[in-house]
Amino acid sequence: MIVADRKPFDEIMGMIESCERILLVGCNECVTVCAAGGAKEVALLASQIRMKRKAGGRPIEVDEKTLERQCDPEYAKSLAETLEGYDAVLSIACGCGVQLVAETCQGLRVLPGLNTRFMGVTEEHGVWAERCQGCGDCVLDRTCGICPVARCAKSIMNGPCGGSQNGECELRHDTPCAWQLIIDRLKASGELSRYGEIAKPRDWSASRDGGPRKRIREDMKI
Amino acid sequence: MTAPGNLERVLTSGGFAVTAECGPPRGADPESIRKKGGYLKGFVDAVNVTDNQTAVVRMSSMASCLILKEMGFDPVLQMTVRDRNRIALQSDILGAAALGIRNILCLSGDHQSFGDHPGAKNVYDVDSTQLIDMARTMRDEGRFSGGAEITVRPEIFIGCVENPFADPFEIRAPRLAKKISAGARFVQTQCVFNVEKFARWMEMVRDLGLHEKAYILAGITPMKSPGMARYMKNSVPGMDVPDHLVERMASVPKEHHREEGMAICLETIERVRAIKGVAGIHIMAIEWEEIVPDVVKGAGLRTRP
Ligand code: SF4
Ligand code: SF4
Predict the structure, then answer these.
(1) Which residues does chain B have within 8 Å of residue A171's beta carbon, measured at their own beta carbons?
(2) What ipTM was assigned to the predicted interfaces of this complex?
């Protein structure tokens, strides 16, 4: 899923400083699961904004809405019909959702309420961690299901570097060294001999380095 | 083919090589490199210049190498893959070779979050092993990584680093094997303080026959103070300073700290020299380059011409 964090409250207040009526829009997908932008967070943020502005003597009207999927035009378009009278739309979906809403709501300011962080998993209740960078050429078959692109701080393909210690990445104590994990799994499956193969330089053109990416399925187009 | 550089000549002729590290200044002052070079003159076979070590901006390794070369040194250009992609790295290899800088040391580089520009974007297009392979392909096959032909091949002596003290320990010799099969001919290790562990690593290195394929130079760092010992032990990732050495440094009065550090350093050199397969030492006297002559003389290593 896509994992995001809510922007600092003051930053959000700054963005809507001049507004008197806004629409706050959440999303029912990833950001609901990572508790950053679902219906619950929409309600919470809306009342925080109202309270703060009221206390400052400049009340603001905040309407709430949570779309099934902000990154899907089918739902994003439904917003367009209800935008009369708003000064801005504050979206607390991921960056993709914010952008599709912006495309849909031409002529209206669309503001991001979240910082979109990464593609990851729920490690435990309340803990999410990065797993994939969408490099476009998956190597998990060669790295025992552990991604060196996303999980090694240096995206090393022939690791581990000289900073790996006690299973931790040199960067931070709370981050496991991806290459320690890979070696552990190679050992567990009796495949350590595979370690000797040198991984060649990657073709990053399949990644963001090749420019913005697009996927087209001709057979699905209507 | 032109004649090999000094480091390569010393190593291939079976001599025990001494190299030292020189950290470039945080400014555009060529004199500070010349000053550091002045300390080392006559005591080392080659001088490494670090490449924005610990991700702190310093004068470029290439420029510093050229200054040292003009002083008559055989410089070792350290190249990390943190700040440059394969286009820039290959371009610098050609540039170095054109300037007569023959030794290239390939390394990953410390992550930028340790340095003074933690908000910088990192590159890591290729890793250190891939850089070694790229440099070797340029020299031996006359091809760029992208496949195109090189008009004049760079004549370079390719090296790598390895940290015997990082984890997982059992992978440290196999990882070196990869780098050597990629094309590394000399190896400079992380600072050795834990000689027992280094000896165990060397045993694994010999078991794989790596000491016969590449020249291994043990990293040596003289300690100035117990504070430095503690700092390296606790705050530098991948550094192994045994407790007994920290205690030993702390056990002498302040005015004898440097003497004690020197004594430990010389003992370490003596012990690593006795390990089969060690072809030299690489002295990393961090911001203490002036001590290198004392280390070389104290260790009874011949004075360099
Ligand atoms: S290798 Fe690429 S696609 Fe596969 S998990 Fe890693 S970043 Fe994602
Ligand atoms: S310590 Fe491990 S995860 Fe961190 S940069 Fe080095 S190899 Fe990658």
Answers:
(1) 111, 113
(2) 0.94
Measure the CA–CA gap between A163 and A155, rounded to whole angstroms.
Answer: 13
Domain ranges for chain A, please list them. Answer: 2-118, 133-204
Closest ligand to residue A136's CA: 1
Query: In angstroms, rounded to a whole number, what is the distance separating the alpha carbons of residues B121 and B127?
Result: 16
pTM, to two decimals: 0.95
As a whole number of angstroms, the distance between CA B199 and CA B238 comes to 17
How far is CA B56 from its chain centroid? 17
Domain chopping of chain B, boundaries = 6-296
Mean of per-residue pLDDT scores for chain A:
96
Specify whether the CB–CB gap between B205 and B177 falls below 8 A: no
Beta-ladder partners of A5: A115
- Atom 8 in ligand 2: residue holding the nearest Cα: A152
> What token pair was written down for B195?
């000689």
Segments in chain B below pLDDT 50: none
| CATH 3.40.50.2300 fits domain A2-118 | yes
Instruction: State the number of CA atoms in the 13 A half-sphere of B211 facing the CB.
Output: 17
Which ligand does the CA of B171 lie closest to?
2
